[in-house]
């Protein structure tokens, strides 16, 4: 069988755009790394769907991850995976006439985004909505399936299937290379700094429950907690009366043991400012942040159901159980730092682009894709 030439779409906003702060573009790179390991793949390129020029200013290795325009790719791909940039109806028609396959790779909470756009007057597509109904397949990462699969299937008129989640420490390692101890967790004597780093941009990852977990741990062990830091929350703490009123009910806030900060670079913040990460998710049970924290050996207290074996797991919305895991970290984590880090990395190996089962999964997906009749 002929090996496949694959393109993965991205959408560049400027010529020197970083990959670090953009999960979608990292996803495209990780997928490219995995597909290059598939025996039925000849080549993989990143395909920019915007009008931004592709130059040497791009801060990634263009030999390792070739990046081209759609015009340069359209006659040279057998499969186009639409991930970070959407093509229009004319481009779709062109690919179909050539016999190329088109896959929608879904790695965002599109149902949540659509719902919030409508309910809270946060326009995201407006009059420019284009729902492509000519995909040959819909691939979605596991954490978005529960809430968004029906949304994908009804709107795009195609069955959606869950595909393996992919992550690599390649960008994390590049970011931490210049940090002391490569940014890995180091034991610390005395009271601990707790941190909550939820994005606070929609309902799936919000800081309130982690702050409540920190509060319950503080009530039990006030002398063992130095500080609670809530990032991505400065605007809430200064502008939102409801948030301010809620936070002022907490002892850890009243006793001036909490600060509400802006946005930070994750690996630098981990290395310089914190000892324990406390997290909570609602329909977001697996993401890069968890893997970055655990790969670096930091204790992650979380309720993510797709990676219960990582970090220190608590169930559902059980803040008391979460607080007990925080206390457990305070009492035990520093006695097993190396073992914890090594265990986390061994567990995370299932998501790496060279994992044999993961590669086998994508090889099978591609075989099934090309065996389908064209839409």
From TrEMBL:
High-level lineage: Bacteria, Pseudomonadati, Pseudomonadota, Betaproteobacteria, Burkholderiales
Protein name: DUF2827 domain-containing protein
Top-level lineage group: Bacteria
